[in-house]
Amino acid sequence: MKGTTFTRCPCPVRRDERGRRLSCGKSHGSWSYVVDVPATAGEKRRQVMKGGFSTRRDAEAALAKSIGHAARGEVASPGRRTLTAYFDEWLIGIRPTLAASAWTNYRSLQHPYGPSRRGSDRGGPDPR
Fold first, then answer.
1. Each residue's pLDDT tens digit, 3-54
2. In the chain, is it the N or the C terminus that has fewer CB atoms within a 10 Å radius of its CB?
3. Is 7 contained in some domain?
């Protein structure tokens, strides 16, 4: 497995006269890592990227941990669940903790403009 760490700067992009990107020269921003993980069937390449680390050492430690997880096959596969399906499952799970009026309000938000506004409905229980 391969991976790398890098820093992201919040400054606007500057370019030289040839159009190449210039670094800002300041030491600020956050550190991130990206690691190649085994691709699933039908995928050419798959990468996992995480960011928000305050130091390079923290990002490198997280990268090493992520490479270890990927080597053992412990990387989560990407889901194909739509927002509609997620919301349906969430609504069922949250119902016992909500007041009846709150649940009714959430349910009314479920399909305000029809399911096509949030992707195709690939199934998922209808909590109504």
1. 889 888 888 888 999 999 888 877 778 899 999 887 777 778 788 889 999 8
2. C
3. yes
